[in-house]
Amino acid sequence: MKRTIFTIVIVVGILALIGWILINNKKENQAKTDIVAKGTGAVIVRTATVSKSPLNLDFSANGNFAAWQDLSLLAENSGRITQILVDEGAHVNKGQVLARIDDKYLSLALQTAKDNLSKLKTDQQRYESSFKTGGVTKAQLDEINLNVRNAENQFQEAQRRLADSYVKAPIAGIINKRNIEVGAYVSPGTALFDIVDVSRLKLLVNANELQVVNLKLGDQVKITSTVFPDNVFSGKISFIAAKSDNTLNYPVEIRVENSSNQQLKAGMYGTATFELPKQEPTIIIPRGAFVGSVSSNEVFILENGNTAKLRKVTAGRNLGEQVEILSGLKEGEVIITSGQINLVDGTEVKPQALDSTKQHKVSNQVADSTNKN
């Protein structure tokens, strides 16, 4: 019994000691809080001075070179390949014969069409003479005339089929791939050769909405390639998409004249540098200075050195981490760039301005952000 009472007394004593410690800690924390509350109560913020900065809209974009023309030449006749006159890698001219398809049956078909046409023309002359004397009716004459026209069409078709037995290059270029061998049987639609024209190339790149509005057809563009770091190629914008793709970028096509020895190859990587007209200096502030987001068009400015005042502004171009301000701010005013989450209009603040090094770094970010693609 005494042991039980002794145990209870010890437990109660321990609980009382814990309670006393907790209460004492609470008093100490409250005392510290009161000391802070008795201070200025100002919210610590960072600030920056509003100034105009030169706006550099030049940018670079990476892409792939594509052949100016790239086609797969298909057979138009059925038959066996009897001769191949070019091999892979050969330069060919437009209209040059590349291969021949067996034309024996095509020649026979042409001769048959020619004989049939000759006979019908003879009959036509006889019918015309007979019609004048009443020997044939008008319907019979019309029928022979129709037969002659049909025979002429068949003769022209046979001529075309025989001509197509000579496979000719539709464009000038390089035989990139040969898909046939002598003796192979082909039918209409069979792939014969792949021909590419790399005398000029297309560099395919993308531009965002801020960049594409400053581009126009015919603009000169500097082109470089990591394969030829010492060479600078010249190009012209030949196409600007009227509609963005799924990533909200606009495809841009640049025509590049290849060198005489055709150094550049289709499929290589290239970098296009767009040098745009210089812009007048304008007011630019960090994106983080906006209350909430850029769409709010609200920032806090510093008044009297210690008061945050809410200001409506008009945002212009979005330059990555920087935003152009069209109206609402003047040079020399001080904006609050961080700590806005704790502010309302009229809140007392304690500014910590960026040092000169950081201020210069922020200004330099304007050019960097506009150069990103």
Automatic annotation (TrEMBL):
It holds the Pfam family Beta-barrel_RND_2. Residues 285-350 form the YknX-like C-terminal permuted SH3-like domain. Residues 78-196 form the Multidrug resistance protein MdtA-like barrel-sandwich hybrid domain. Keywords: Coiled coil, Membrane, Transmembrane, Transmembrane helix. InterPro entries: Beta-barrel_RND_2, MdtA-like_BSH, RND_pump_MFP, YknX-like_C. The chain crosses the membrane at residues 5-23. It comes from the Bacteria. Residues 110-168 form a coiled coil. Residues 206-275 form the CusB-like beta-barrel domain. Belongs to the membrane fusion protein (MFP) (TC 8.A.1) family. This is Efflux RND transporter periplasmic adaptor subunit.
